[in-house]
Amino acid sequence: MDPLASPESRRQSAIAALEGRLHEAPTALEVVFASAGLFAWGEPSAFRSWPGSIPATESTELPSSIAAWSGLLLPGLRSDHGAQLVRSVIEAQDACWLLHADLECGSLLREAHESLEGVLHECRTLLLDDEAAALLEEYRDASAMDLLQPGLALSVIRHPLGETQREALALDPALEVPPVTAICPVPSLARELVFDGGRPSPRMIDNFQKRQGRILCADGSQAGIRALLESDWRVSVEFDAEQGWCDRIDSVRIGVLSASSLDGDRDTWVVSLDPFGLDTQTRLVGQPIVVALAGGERFSL
Fold it and tell me: How far apart are CA 73 and CA 91, in angstroms?
């Protein structure tokens, strides 16, 4: 892909590559991965139609196929370096796309979500060597991943950070793209804090709303932040800051779930946990809320 091409030209090239991948997909697993990639690029028809384009016998085997794929990928994410690690990370991008697309389209593959979340967890905790970071930067630019909406590209691809830069950051935290900074501890929420009717109890809601603090950026700017959990499993993350600061917010997520800005002010971000089963909801409520800014700074609440 020509790095000097216009954003629209780069976008169309990325879509064409995924369409070619879909056309040549040899298995049902490859069909859903490629169509989920198209969904991320704003082409939803292939993913929405996959249940009718795949034989029923293959559809029922998809969750186990995804679990097996995840199991084979995890060792590479945990032990490889350089080019080998990059190949694993690029493959893991499929997990990001598939989880996003399935959540948006009815969670037909819900049984596979835990496997996909496991892959994404490994990617969030990766420490790249310099070779891997450089290669991922090349991949990000060549595949136009920088044009995707926040949350649709793995953070390790969106902001790769090599060992040399990590060491430099340890000596000078004011450098660009600092590591994730903890805002405050995440409260531990027990399962018994959920009503039998499947709704969070007042105690769970109160504990969750203790998540608040102040974000201090390297440039001296700051913002207040607080998280709210409502009885219908809607999570809101609110920022108390000037509009210019809120415009810098690149993404907000709880665990692996990406939140969406409520309006153009970008001072309130929301995501619903209602589509998930009770076990998943309880786990997600206990996950960290991560805020990524356009300059690469990330903060954990």
Answer: 8
